[in-house]
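Shipment paperwork, digital attachment
Item: protein structure file
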Amino acid sequence: MTVGNPASDPAFAQLRELRSLLLKAHKHLMEAEKDAYEATHGPIPHKGEYLRLVLSHEQFSWLRPISQFIVQIDEVLMAKQPQPLVRADELMVEARHLLQTTEIGHAFQERSALAAQRDPEMAAMALRMAELLNA
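Attachment content:
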């Protein structure tokens, strides 16, 4: 089994780029979901309440699997030990499945497209993520 350093090995380059884009998109989509929540329910009084909502309110539930997936990527990319090179491909396959074929993926695609209409940075991120996932 061939192993490499996830922080620098070229085999992990796509995964590193996807992680960076996914993290930025996730943050953007969390803010959009927060704005939608506040439009309906009023302002969230403090960060602790916001965290509670993110962890338990139905409106944010579609984002939780994406959060968990980012953590999964981080565990591989930040591992102190060399990782099997095949792990990069496995995570890219998992990303394609999660972000394109599941109900979560459909929500992610729809909300990313809406955000992209309002924000050119989000549009560029969504385009690059699609390129990486379809490579």
